[in-house]
Structures are given as structure tokens and as C-alpha cells.
Fold this sequence. Notes:
Blueprint: H1 12-29, H2 36-46
Helix pairs in contact: 1-2
Amino acid sequence: MIAGQAYDPADPALVADRLRARRLCTEFNALPEVNAQAAALLVLIYAQIGDS
């Protein structure tokens, strides 16, 4: 990957990242409307988001 190492989808850090993203996406999708809580979840998922 970035460090020149082979990609290992079972790498513990990648597995943890995928599980975290899945949990946050599930939480986002369960919200009844897009609001401040939804925006906060999007920042957690994507690190940063635009204004629109």
C-alpha cells in the first residue's frame, strides 16, 4: 500500500476501520432526517465534508 507493502484485507487495522465505518453508516442510515447529528456522523465517516 502506501508504504510499499502488499495489501492484506485481513490486516487488523483495516478490519477495525471497516467495522467502524459499517457501524457509523448504519447509525447514519437509521436517522429519520438529516440534521446536526447526521452531519457529525458524516465527519466521523469521511474525516471532512463540504458545505453542501
